[in-house]
């Protein structure tokens, strides 16, 4: 931007102490499919992923995959096929 680099933080998932939910791969996949179908917002997806026990995720743009992590080392990898945009 003309005025320099900026950051805009979203709302936190919660503001008090919370027990981390148990990792639930099935619930995460449901949240992903709802998001992919455009039937929810990104903040709603983040809340659903949290409730499914996701504590972090890594996006690998080069290999087209996202890895979701649970607090006890659980992992779920979602892979995406290449998309070609015709000119």
Fold blueprint:
Blueprint: H1 25-36, H2 42-51, E1 56-60, E2 65-69, E3 75-79
Antiparallel strand pairs: 1-2, 2-3
Helix pairs in contact: 1-2
Please characterize this protein's 3D structure.
The protein is α+β, with helices and mostly antiparallel strands. The protein has a domain at 25-79. It starts with 24 loop residues before the first helix and ends in an 8-residue tail after the last strand. Helix content is 25%, strand content 17%. Strands 1-2-3 form a three-stranded antiparallel beta sheet, with no helix packed on it. It contains two helices and three strands. The chain is globular and about 50 Å long.
Keywords:
87 residues; alpha+beta; 3-stranded antiparallel sheet
Distance between the termini: 29 Å
Instruction: State the strand order across the main sheet.
Output: 1-2-3
Radius of gyration, whole Å: 15 Å
Based on DSSP secondary structure assignment, what is the total number of beta strands? 3
| Beta-strand residue percentage | 15-25%
Helix content: 25-40%
Mean pLDDT, all residues: 93
Strand and helix order = HHEEE
Q: Which regions are unreliable across 5 or more consecutive residues at pLDDT < 50?
A: none
Could you give a short account of the major beta sheet? 3 strands, antiparallel
Give the CA-based shape. Answer: globular
Alpha-beta classification: alpha+beta
Count of alpha and pi helical runs: 2
């Amino acid at each position: 931007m003309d005025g320099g680099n900026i950051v805009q933080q979203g709302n936190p998932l919660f503001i008090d102490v919370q027990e981390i939910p148990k990792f639930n791969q099935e619930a995460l996949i449901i949240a992903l499919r709802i998001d992919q179908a455009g039937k929810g917002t990104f903040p709603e997806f983040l809340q659903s992923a949290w409730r499914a026990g996701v504590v972090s995720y890594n996006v690998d743009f080069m290999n087209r995959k996202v890895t979701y992590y649970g607090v006890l080392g659980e992992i779920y990898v979602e892979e995406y096929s290449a998309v070609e945009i015709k000119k």
